[in-house]
Amino acid sequence: MNPRLFSFIAGDTGPWTTSKSTVVTGEGLPIAPKLEILNGAAPSIPGSARWILQGVTSNERYVTRTEKDELVAIQPALGRPEAECAALIPIRKNAKWWGLTPEERRKIFEEQSHHTATGLRYLPAVARRLHHCRDLGEAQPFDFLTWFEFARTDLPAFERLLKELRATEEWQFVDREVEIHFTRNTSA
């Protein structure tokens, strides 16, 4: 088992209830009432599954040591009791992005778009974990899956975070993005 692999299974069971699904750009995903997140591969695909997305956690890319240390210092753990809301945002970037060198991507990601600095302003209210899908092969439907958790009272901050990020140069390279919101099912 790969402990860095996570499976997001949308279907009829799971502790997260879908509250909203929005296609930001490109093709959407079928809507399912619930979401289950497994650490590892799904042992079998449930018959009720509408879709399964997989990604692996990895080292932070495009950040400096100082930025990484800042993130680690204030990034809260997932699963906090007060974080009853969540969002899964699958993203795919276009071939032009992947044709750039890592240095060119870093320049756009951080020096021009200030991705890390923007995210830091919303910590610890909005916790997140990034999953890389491309590391599983280029046939994946998305390049990244970002899982966010936050308290209901922090929803406006989460929405401001997304608005700021989507206004950057980096987002000109996004050709598929879906934003799916969830609430924690306390009876699950």
Structure, described:
The chain is α+β, with helices and mostly antiparallel strands. It has a domain at 57-184: 2-Layer Sandwich (Alpha-Beta Plaits), CATH 3.30.70.3420. 24% of the residues lie in helices and 33% in strands. It has five helices and eight strands; from the N terminus they run ββββαβαααββαβ. The chain has helices at residues 65-74, 95-99, 102-112, 115-121, 155-166; strands spanning 5-11, 16-25, 34-39, 51-56, 85-93, 127-132, 144-150, 174-184. An eight-stranded antiparallel sheet has the order 4-1-3-2-8-5-7-6. β2 (16-25) and β3 form a beta hairpin. The radius of gyration is 16 Å and the shape is globular. The two termini are 25 Å apart. The model has no long low-confidence stretch (mean pLDDT 92).
